Amino acid sequence: MSKQSLSSLSSLIPAKGEAAKAETLPDEKPRLSKPLKEERHGLTIRIRQSHNDRLRTMVYREGMTKQDLLDRAIDEMLERYGY
């Protein structure tokens, strides 16, 4: 293994301070979920692959999570049926 000078290694060391933060952090999308006010319970379901593909596309494009999307859908369905 060959020896490298310290100056050539300095390019491998990340920058310090605000410049490093701006360059290394990904763009964050705003979270659309409400602050957690209710206790949640686990629920396991199986959905069609075509529905999963469409859900993944929607949450990506809308910048939301599957949890947000499903909470909204369940709320709308319960309201529609009067519960």
TrEMBL record:
It comes from Lichenicola cladoniae. Residues 1-40 are annotated as: Disordered. Keywords: Plasmid. This is Uncharacterized protein. Residues 1-12 have a biased composition (Low complexity). Residues 18-40 have a biased composition (Basic and acidic residues).
